[in-house]
Amino acid sequence: MARIVIDAERCKGCLLCCAACPKEVIGPGKDINSKGYNPVIVVLPEACTGCALCAKMCPDVAIRVWR
Ligand code: SF4
Ligand code: SF4
């Protein structure tokens, strides 16, 4: 099973990864990080295939993929 880890301090909440994920694993979060951004969260962990499209899309290298 694959999973991702989002670095909430690096994330700017741009939502590019949400658009990139074909399985809708990632969604908007409600917390605010120390820079004032809303980091995304994993909303559907069991659907992750480990394809890494989200990590490739992220301009801030905030997502790591484990598979
Ligand atoms: S690795 Fe693929 S399936 Fe998993 S969250 Fe990223 S884009 Fe979605
Ligand atoms: S693409 Fe990166 S910076 Fe943008 S919301 Fe996703 S994890 Fe955060």
Main traits of this protein?
67 residues; alpha+beta; Alpha-Beta Plaits; two-stranded antiparallel sheet; 2 helices; globular
Short description:
This protein is α+β, with helices and mostly antiparallel strands. The protein has helices spanning 16-20, 53-57, and strands at residues 3-6, 26-27, 41-42, 63-66.
What does this molecule look like?
With 67 residues, the protein is α+β, with helices and mostly antiparallel strands. It has a single domain, classed as Alpha-Beta Plaits (2-Layer Sandwich), CATH 3.30.70. It is 15% helix and 18% strand. It has two helices and four strands; from the N terminus they run E-H-E-E-H-E. The protein has helices at 16-20, 53-57; strands at residues 3-6, 26-27, 41-42, 63-66. It has a two-stranded antiparallel sheet with strand order 1-4. A two-stranded antiparallel ribbon has the order 2-3. The longest helix has 5 residues, at 16-20. The chain is globular and about 30 Å long. The termini are close together. The mean pLDDT is 98. Residues 6, 11-17, 40, 57-58, 60, 62-63 line the site of one iron/sulfur cluster (SF4).
